[in-house]
Amino acid sequence: MSRIWDNALATLEDCIKPHEYELWCRPIVCTGISDDEITLQAPNAYLRTYFSLNYLPLVYDRLETELKRRPRVTFQPDGAPAASDEVEPPPALPAAPAPAPTPGLEAVEPPAGPSDVVPHYTFDTFVVGPSNQLAHAAARAVAEHPATKWNPLYIYGGVGLGKTHLLMAIANEILRRNPGWRVSYVSTERFVNESIAAIQSH
Asked: What whole-number distance in Å separates Cα of residue 111 and Cα of residue 108?
């Protein structure tokens, strides 16, 4: 059982970045394999969903090669099976296209002046550890689905722990996916002052 799952994970380890593998794939544990079903366990529902959407199709290809069939996958995030946790085998996927603008939000002209967002503050340069995994995953979700997931996102922490880095990484990723969009990065003081002025001027 463990050999089959280890071989499937090895497929991911060879094709994604090491920090992504450590964050999203290594925590997934195989708890059972039967003739037509594979049972996995994830530490939380968010990781389970992210793994299912982004990495499970690649795992299916390897499992189909190993088992000579395309099994069903059931997640047990809390150690108890639930019908709603079943993930149907996805169809074979073509090569991923270049990121498309996120639907549902209107594109606008980019700002004329220089942006306050620091270009080198990206997710690739952010060091992920046990203390910031959740914040990193939430920031990723916001960048990939702006204004739809975790909206608003509130990040709290001490000085020098990466809050600014994550916020700017969100901005940089959104601009990478949607070059025509406008991103505003402002301090709390400026935000409050502008909000008060907007209320006063109706």
From this structure: 9
**Per-residue pLDDT tens over the stretch 64-98:** 777 677 777 788 755 444 333 444 444 444 444 54
What CA–CA distance (Å, rounded) separates 11 from 161?
Answer: 33
Three-state DSSP class for residue 91: coil
List strands edge to edge, sheet with 72-75.
Answer: 29-33, 37-41, 72-75, 86-87
> Does residue 152 contact residue 142 with C-beta atoms inside 8 Å?
no
- The number of C-alpha atoms within 13 Å of 110 and in the hemisphere containing its C-beta is 11
DSSP secondary structure code for residue 81 in this structure: -
Full DSSP string of 3-28:
HHHHHHHHHHHTTS-HHHIIIIITT-
* Spatial contact of 70 and 39, defined as CB atoms under 8 Å apart: no
Could you give the 3-state DSSP secondary structure of residue 167? helix
**Are the beta carbons of 90 and 51 closer than 8 angstroms?**
no
20-72 per-position pLDDT tens digit:
787 778 888 888 877 677 788 888 777 788 888 778 777 777 777 776 777 77
d(CA 148, CA 2) in angstroms, rounded, equals 37
Query: What DSSP string runs through 40-59?
Result: EE-SSHHHHHHHHHHTHHHH
Contact 176, 115 (CB under 8 A): no
